[in-house]
Amino acid sequence: MTIAQSTRERIIDVAKERFHARGYADVGIKEICDNAHIQKGSFYHFFPSKEDLALTVIDEFAEDWANGFVAEAFDPRLKPMERIDYLIDAAYFWQKSVKEKNGKIPGCLFGNLALEMSTKNDVLRAKLNAVFTKAKARFKETLEEAIDSGEIKPLNTELTAEAMLAYLEGMILLAKSENDPEVLYKLGPAIKTIRIESREHV
């Protein structure tokens, strides 16, 4: 890794941690530079603005998310509905481990930023919406496999996937509000009871 690459990664790593813990508006460029041990000129060499940095953070966090516990949860070797169980367990243990380390549940970076910025910044809103669209696709594909294998009865996979994602994000938000990862453990199993019927099955 070159010096330039290392500097850029330090900026991103600092921003990831602080945006996740405190939000976008509360974290300034000076704080990011100070904690990345760089001058402001170096920051602007890589990122024209804080917004550009936030877009990069969302992309990198989404990649980490997709290639980390989400990839493990949606392992095609697992039965379709077992993948959803695994996803809830992974979310629970991750939030719990962070609380044990830092004393607070961080919640979901994407959900946190969506709540904070969706009515204030259309560029960030669009980027976050793209992340949620990919997440919905994971649920939809899993539900379709479950129907094809006979594991569940036919339903509207598009709307049920969206409802499952909304439930997951809502649980994480509630757990963050109560600073209690056990919310995920208690409420998580109900995600598999969500089903929105297709018109022909109503």
Please describe what this structure looks like.
With 202 residues, this protein is mainly alpha-helical. The chain has 2 domains: 3-48, Homeodomain-like (Arc Repressor Mutant, subunit A), CATH 1.10.10.60; 68-201, Tetracycline Repressor, domain 2, CATH 1.10.357. Helices cover 72% and strands 0% of the residues. It has 10 helices and no strands. The chain starts with a helix and ends in a 15-residue tail after the last helix. The mean pLDDT is 93.
Write the layout of secondary structure elements.
Elements: H1 3-22, H2 29-36, H3 40-46, H4 50-67, H5 69-73, H6 80-102, H7 109-117, H8 122-148, H9 157-178, H10 182-187
Helix pairs in contact: 1-2, 1-4, 4-8, 6-8, 7-8, 8-9
Précis, in short:
The protein has 202 residues and is an all-alpha fold.
CATH fold field value of the largest domain: Tetracycline Repressor, domain 2
CATH architecture of the largest domain: Orthogonal Bundle
Largest sheet: none
Q: Domain count, please report it.
A: 2
What is the fourth-level CATH superfamily of the largest domain? Tetracycline Repressor, domain 2
In sequence order, what are the helices and strands, one letter per element? HHHHHHHHHH
Task: From the alpha carbons, calculate the radius of gyration and give it in angstroms.
Answer: 19 Å
The chain-level structural class is mainly alpha
How many separate helices?
10
Unreliable spans? none
Count the beta strands.
0
**Average pLDDT score:** 93
Please give the alpha-carbon distance between the first and last residues.
Answer: 57 Å
